[in-house]
Amino acid sequence: MNAAPETRVVHAACPHDCPDTCAMLVTVENGRAVRVQGDPEHPTTNGALCTKVSRYPERTYHPERVLTPLKRIGPKGRGEFVPVSWDEALETIAARLKAIAARDPEAILPYSYAGTMGLVQGESMAARFFNKLGASRLDRTICASAGSEALLATYGIKAGMHVEHFAESRLILIWGSNSITSNLHFWTIAQAAKRQGAKLVCIDPRRTETAEKCHEHLALRPGSDGALALALMHELIAHDWLDHDYLERYVDGWPALRERALQWPAERAAAVCGLTVEQIRGLARDYGTTQPAAIRLNYGMQRVHGGGSAVRLIALLPCLTGAWRHRAGGLLLSASGWFAGRRDDAWLQRPDLLAGRQPRTINMSTIGDDLLREASPGFGPRIEALVVYNSNPVAVAPESRKVVAGFAREDLFTVVLEHFLTDTADHADFVLPATTQLEHWDAHTAYGHTYALLNKPAIEALGEARSNAAIFRALAERMGFDDPCFADDDETLARRAFLADRVDLGSLEQRGWAKLDVADAPFAKGFPTPSGKAVVDVPGLGVPDHVPNHECAETTPELAARFPLAMISPPARHFLNSTFVNVKSLRAVEGEPLLEIHPDDAAARGIADGAEVRVFNERGEYRCAAAVSTRARPGVVVGLGVWWRKLGRDGTNVNELTHQRLTDIGRAPSFYDCLVEVAAA
Q1: What is d(CA 330, CA 294) in angstroms, rounded to the nearest whole number?
Q2: Which of 55, 393, 670, 675 would staple 397 via disulfide (CB 3.0–4.6 Å)?
Q3: What range does the record give for the signal peptide (predicted)?
Q4: What is the pLDDT of residues 83-97, one digit of tens each?
């Protein structure tokens, strides 16, 4: 008779780059994780996980997991490796880094982003290591920095509404967000508001799954969001749908903003946005006459040249109507600012280890160009070594032809910490096996809600995998870094990540999460700026205006004549950036890389649904299947991403076509500011 399995349930947190940051419960039987589910007691998770993360055990126990250190034996990019011991890997890596650092430590570059959002497995021991080394610093811009800096400039903080309070809103503008795909728990809350009579309006170039389920969809052109915001302001002014008292008390620079908005009647914006005058006026009427009205803004709309200015303008809309007086009114783009001062960043990252040095900063969004640069007085030393963790730049960075060329340099020493042999890992000299979220300690903030979370390891690390923090701890030892901080273990880092007087550590320990103390209507009586007011005329930036795309008929007419279609590249529903692409059950649902194209644009090019197409511009070419669909508006194609290049039809993905030019604010990439042409293959 078989004994009953030993079963336990462990509190965990979803590590992925998503505003929901779910609290999870991991069921373990006889040392094996058999189920991952949402914590029903956590108010925003409410027991539910997205399809991707509910299959997390499939990812953890994936037969292709890298579970031993690997050393390259073939050409870069071929993914040809042999297993080696940790001792051999660490000794070789440390020796190469020491030799490079002896010449110039700034020739070494870390490259990481949000493969995990954890404070421990993200930038704790890694930051200590690179600060002590004096390596080049990485400007982590690839996702959110345009919108983040716009919020900081306007509100003085990267923060906004509580997501739960959208349930009480009477009007919700879902702006630049496919919430069903990328913010599922907000969508549940919005549906609750809808059942109570709220109107939902989606503003998005694509007719997404979310747009289909809203009362109204405004399919504006990519990069025209700022023009729409200004036209809405024009209508609010013309009809006096304004809260004059709020403007007087809590907005610095209202006269200048009023003057700017009066230059944008609905007719002018309609021509820029590709909308009708009636659509703009109807939306303004709804927004100006409905209280409480809330905006769920997401980061897709800021991935264009004028993305920062557009966020500034949209962030000012609730100030005009006084929507911030209500806890169910205002705007949410990010809640991450509420965690500032509640986590112990100085202790986690130890910037004091720089010892007064000020290394250069490399923008992760221009890594394609930067890996190909020679040493120069303006740039500094050539990049000789790259340590990649929590990222897959060969797949996700813009203008990937240059990224691939840079990673293929034989004189570039590359170390990748990974779970799988991604496109980036295929170019590594060493691949080091990293643990997944089920196998390590971590602490998490969120950018979509106001709960801190603690992740406890549910299972022992598989094979020879080690946590990111443990790998950098071991590298520090081999480099001879003997500062006591390099002895801190992962559990210590996780338990000390939050300040005891600012976060309820008892709740974190017992429940796995703790609610932050944030006012219900945080900006009802002003903003955390020096003046206490939202700022219109920002020093160095001026009064915001619509900024046209880098690539469009207005700014580059000759280019637009050759490449007349605007391309956006949002994530496929069952992927999260390039994560989960190799989970076969999820990839089976997605099928293959697709380009959505409107029937009118397809007919003009002789393209049938399902046919192979060439998508191309001056930067490159990408082949995939055409999905002829009204999800794409006329003149816009949608390249769903981010597929691993080696899983594509021709070994490329949509980033073969994107460029490295940056946003107006925040030094961020302009992924959705891209002109292409499409032809039958």
Answers
A1: 5
A2: 393
A3: none
A4: 999 999 999 999 999
Cα-to-chain-centroid distance, residue 409: 28
Question: Which CATH class, in words, describes the domain spanning 557-680?
Answer: mainly beta
The residue among 48, 610, 107 whose CA lies nearest residue 371 is 107
Question: CA-to-CA distance for 460 and 499, rounded, in angstroms?
Answer: 28
Dmax over CA atoms of the chain, in Å, equals: 82
CATH code of domain 146-333: 3.40.228.10
pLDDT of res. 99: 98
Question: Residue 669: which residues within 8 A CB-CB, separation 6 or more?
Answer: 141, 142, 303, 365, 397, 398, 658, 660, 662, 663
Delimit the domains of the chain by residue range. 7-60, 70-143+344-452+462-505, 146-333, 557-680
pTM of the model as a whole: 0.96
- Nearest CA-CA partner of 129 in 471, 541, 592: 471
**Would you say residue 573 has pLDDT above 80?**
no
Q: What b/e readout covers 290-300, taking b as 16+ CB neighbours within 10 angstroms?
A: bbbbbbbbbbb
| pLDDT tens by residue, 610-668 | 999 999 999 999 999 999 999 999 999 999 988 889 988 999 999 999 999 999 999 99
Rg of the chain in Å (alpha carbons): 25
CATH number of 7-60: 3.30.200.210
Sequence-ordered alpha helix ranges (H) in 175-252: 179-182, 184-195, 209-212, 225-238, 244-250
What does the chain come to in residues? Answer: 681
Centre a 10 Å sphere on the Cβ of residue 495 and count the other Cβ atoms it contains. Answer: 16
C-alpha–C-alpha distance, residues 437 and 467, integer Å: 9
Separation between Cα atoms, residue 190 and residue 202, nearest integer Å: 12
Looking at the domain that runs over 70-143+344-452+462-505, which CATH code has it been given? 3.40.50.740
